[in-house]
Amino acid sequence: MRPEILRRIHDGHQGIVKCRERAKCSVWWPRISRDIQEIVSTCKHCQESKPTQKREPLITTPLPNRPWERVAADICKLNTQHYLVVVDYFSRYIEIAYLKDMSSETTRAKLKNIFSRWGCPNELITDNGPQFSGRAFMQFSQEYDFRHITTSPHYAQANGEAERAVQTAKKILRQADPFLALMIYRATPLQATGVSPAQLMLGRQIRTTVPTLETKLQPVWPDLQHVRQVDERVKQGYRHAYNNRHDVRPLPELQSGLSVAVKLDSEKGWTKTATVLKQCDSPRSYLVQTDGRVLRRNRRHLRPLLSAPNTSEKGGEDHIECDGEPHSPAPASDPPPDPPPDPPPVTVPVTPVHMTSSGRLVKPPDRYGEYVK
Question: What segment(s) does the record annotate as region Disordered (predicted)?
Fold first, then answer.
């Protein structure tokens, strides 16, 4: 009987709180609140109709120890033309290279050209585009001795440094003289560090079209300790503003073998199911298997699936109260017990009732109960 009552309580697919309020009006049994929570949490319709999960707290990348230690790369499209954008995490120094086509071979050639000027980085962060995947790019990373790290697909925020550099590159490429605009960007102090990308990358300021004293162009490294303090203070402000704006909430880690529902931000409904294989090296990134395919998804796009409880083992016929009256079915073989004797009458003191001319009852406050007769 309990499963049927629970099903009726959850008709309309309301939430846990409203289902509990509905049950309070009619039925009760031990641990009914827990049973309502289980049936609502495991309802297939309710799980598929849940909104997109909230964003997690922002993770900022600490400033590397030196220039060109950690770089990010991405491809941007502007006016039917494609460009390779590479940015240094330490100095925010940007390199832009035109791509005649979108092949992996052309992308690798442009990266080799950039590496010939600045050397091989320790780490290269990219998305999972076809230009950065495949056996040829893996061999390229081994030959040039750098670690290739890819971010979660369909989650551009994971490669935020490159995405921000792409915005800057598009602004530069839209100008009449993009080479002059790129030079000015490299020579302008940034708010994130307090110095220009050229100073952190080259150890000196570069000469531009604006008149500058020769002493300002001499090689002098900026105070790196002060640069780190400014960078951390700015990133702390980024985290505080982002977390407050999006009302973030950390999501628990997923274990291997767990059944999950998969939904991208652009999709509707948690209708796809998958099984977690393992957690990737990148934070909040998992490999899942669905429909015979292995996909990589961010934690925000995965929601654990809760299995329906086994109500047959709960002994749901023991004790149910409807409208405050208990109902306990007795075995058919036992005779009905004798009715209990009538209790002795209880005398209840009558409290005088006072009414106003409009018919409203006048009730004295409780704190005056000892004095009002």
Answer: 299-373
Q: In what order do the strands lie in the sheet with 320-322?
A: 27-28, 320-322, 325-327
What count of other Cβ atoms lies within 10 Å of the Cβ of residue 252?
Answer: 7
Nearest CA-CA partner of 44 in 275, 310, 271: 271
- Does one domain contain both 105 and 46? no
CA–CA gap between residue 350 and residue 336 (Å, rounded): 38
* Stretch (H or E) spanning 277: strand 272-279
What residues contact residue 218 under an 8 Å CB cut-off, 6+ apart? 204
Distance between CA 178 and CA 196 in Å, rounded? Answer: 18
Query: How many residues are recorded in the chain?
Result: 373
Pair (166, 269) in one structural domain: no
Instruction: Answer with the one of 206, 228, 245 that is the final residue of a domain.
Output: 245
Burial 205-222 (b: 16+ CB within 10 A, else e): bbeeeeeeeeeeeeeeeb
- Type of residue numbered 328: S
Check whether residue 183 and residue 109 sit in a common domain.
yes
pLDDT in tens, the chain (373 residues): 888 888 888 888 888 899 888 888 888 889 888 988 888 888 888 878 888 888 999 999 999 999 999 999 999 999 999 999 999 999 999 999 999 999 999 999 999 999 999 999 999 999 999 999 989 999 999 999 999 999 989 888 888 899 999 999 999 999 999 999 999 999 999 999 999 999 999 999 999 999 989 998 999 999 999 999 999 999 999 999 999 999 999 999 999 999 999 999 888 889 899 999 999 988 999 999 998 899 999 999 999 987 665 544 444 444 445 444 444 444 444 555 555 555 555 444 445 555 565 556 666 666 655 554 4
- Expressed as residue numbers, the domain containing 124 is 70-245
**CATH code assigned at 138:** 3.30.420.10
**Total tally of structural domains belonging to the chain:** 2
84 belongs to a structural domain: yes
Q: Is residue 356 part of a domain?
A: no
222 and 123, same structural domain?
yes
- Residue 59 falls inside a structural domain: no
Task: Please state whether 14 falls in left (phi above 0), alpha (psi between -120 and 50) or beta.
Answer: beta
